């Protein structure tokens, strides 16, 4: 008896604002989300603000050199403490000047000593779990969150092998790419190369060998691997002797919204998805070099990527989102090749299982 094919997720998972609300209050608040890079807080007092799952947060480096993350809210009457980025010796609320140490404890507030029984030691900013993942800062709003190394086994160590200088990297470029689609449509598109040869000619003929492309689950990681294109066909120069992985391409997609991607030649770049609503997502595309030093190779590769693969993907995912709203759409079977490989959607099967569990439990 033949097994029934695995059918793709129903359109409502990508269209329904209520499902997005459930994801924002549940999945996005209980998983590790990218906040920023450690180079943004190099000196004590350096901070930057960001938002996750509808919450305003900020990261700051303390005088003890430890990086912490807090909810961006004063414990007095809920005014936001900081905006953007900057440096502060103390955290002073703009509303009533309640003042906090960089470690979160309340230092002072105008006239608070006149309050009977006022105990400054009981008031502290609400801290958020933070992990410095090879220089990349991730936060999790879940107070009982499992460590990143349990969510993403081997990823930290493998990245360090592929990019030996990863802890010395700084961003040289972050590009913001808005897409008119549900975040899951964009993530799915990133998580398979079934479409690559047809839709990404530059990537498929000038960067990688599609016939060697494979994606395998590794905990809550989707691990992409493939070989680089023949050197005479590469669109940029690489030195195969620079590192044992220099001739390969690998990607670590960390569920649900971040991916480290190492291009041949050990060039690190990242994808970071930030969901806006059920129909819109912004993708931050990052490129990095040692010390943030300018590199013609990285500059030209980032331009090539933006003008080809990224632009091509925008058209693809926005077309899919329009199609998901068609009354003529019926979810079809995923192409699951037992041998895996580039023309198999086994990675999408794993991804859609995580997506379904996040909504339905």
Q: Could you please say which CATH topology of the largest domain applies here? A: Naphthalene 1,2-dioxygenase Alpha Subunit, Chain A, domain 1
Task: Tell me the fraction of residues in β-strands, as a range.
Answer: 25-35%
- Overall CATH architecture of the largest domain: Alpha-Beta Complex
Number of strands: 17
What shape does the CA trace take? Answer: globular
Distance between the termini: 30 Å
What's the multimeric state? single chain
Helices, strands, pairings?
Elements: H1 12-15, H2 17-25, E1 33-37, E2 46-52, E3 55-61, E4 67-71, E5 85-87, E6 91-92, E7 99-100, E8 106-108, E9 127-133, E10 136-140, H3 148-151, H4 155-162, E11 169-179, H5 183-190, H6 196-199, H7 201-206, E12 214-218, E13 221-227, E14 248-254, E15 258-263, E16 267-277, E17 280-290, H8 296-324, H9 346-360
Antiparallel strand pairs: 1-10, 2-3, 2-5, 3-4, 4-9, 6-7, 7-8, 9-10, 11-17, 12-13, 13-14, 14-15, 15-16, 16-17
Helix pairs in contact: 5-8
Features:
361 residues, Rieske Iron-sulfur Protein, Naphthalene 1,2-dioxygenase Alpha Subunit, Chain A, domain 1, seven-stranded antiparallel sheet, 17 strands, globular
């Amino acid at each position: 008896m033949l097994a029934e094919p695995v059918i793709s997720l129903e359109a409502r998972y990508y269209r329904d604002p209520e499902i997005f609300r459930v994801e924002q209050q549940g999945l996005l608040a209980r998983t590790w989300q990218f906040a920023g890079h450690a180079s943004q807080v190099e000196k004590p007092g350096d901070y930057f603000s960001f938002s996750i799952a509808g919450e305003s947060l900020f990261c700051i480096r303390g005088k003890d050199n430890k990086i912490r993350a807090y909810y961006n809210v004063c414990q007095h009457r809920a005014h936001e403490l900081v905006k953007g980025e900057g440096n502060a010796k103390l955290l002073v609320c703009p509303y009533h000047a309640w003042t906090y140490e960089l470690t979160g404890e309340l230092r002072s507030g105008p006239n608070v000593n006149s309050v009977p029984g006022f105990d400054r030691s009981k008031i502290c900013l609400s801290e958020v779990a933070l992990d410095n993942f090879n220089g990349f800062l991730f936060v999790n709003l879940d107070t009982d969150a499992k460590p990143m190394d349990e969510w993403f086994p081997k990823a930290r160590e493998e990245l360090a092998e592929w990019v030996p200088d990863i802890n010395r990297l700084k961003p040289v470029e972050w590009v913001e790419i808005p897409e008119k689609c549900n975040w899951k449509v964009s993530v799915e598109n990133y998580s398979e190369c079934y479409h690559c040869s047809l839709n990404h000619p530059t990537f498929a003929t000038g960067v990688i060998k599609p016939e060697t492309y494979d994606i395998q689950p590794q905990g809550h990681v989707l691990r992409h691997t493939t070989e680089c294109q023949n050197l005479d066909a590469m669109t940029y120069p690489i030195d195969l002797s620079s590192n044992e992985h220099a001739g390969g391409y690998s990607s670590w997609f960390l569920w649900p919204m971040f991916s480290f991607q190492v291009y041949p030649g050990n060039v690190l770049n990242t994808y970071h998805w930030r969901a806006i609503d059920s129909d819109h997502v912004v993708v931050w595309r990052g490129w990095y070099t040692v010390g943030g030093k300018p590199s013609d190779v990285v500059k030209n590769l980032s331009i090539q990527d933006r003008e080809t693969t990224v632009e091509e993907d925008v058209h693809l995912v926005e077309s899919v989102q329009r199609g998901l709203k068609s009354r003529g759409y019926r979810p079809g079977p995923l192409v699951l090749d037992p041998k895996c490989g580039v023309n198999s959607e086994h990675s999408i099967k794993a991804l859609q299982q995580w997506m379904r569990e996040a909504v339905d439990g």
